[in-house]
Amino acid sequence: MKISARNAFKGTVKQLTHGAVNSEVVVELPGGIEVVSIITKHSAESLELAVGKEVYAVIKASDVMIGEPHLPKDE
Length: 75
Prior knowledge:
Layout: E1 7-18, E2 22-28, E3 34-40, H1 41-46, E4 54-59
Antiparallel strand pairs: 1-2, 1-4, 2-3
């Protein structure tokens, strides 16, 4: 499989919560970092997702925001 996204992270399904229409998928990456995705329930079933299954979190975005914590300055 070839894809155009440059950000594909291999991980393991840590948690899977099905709703009426959508499913929330928590993928644990190496180092314990978690990525959460909302996909259709149909897609989750078609991919046969289950806790412990090895998957890829593929991120395709034209904008990526960067932030820093706001620390109060001593006055």
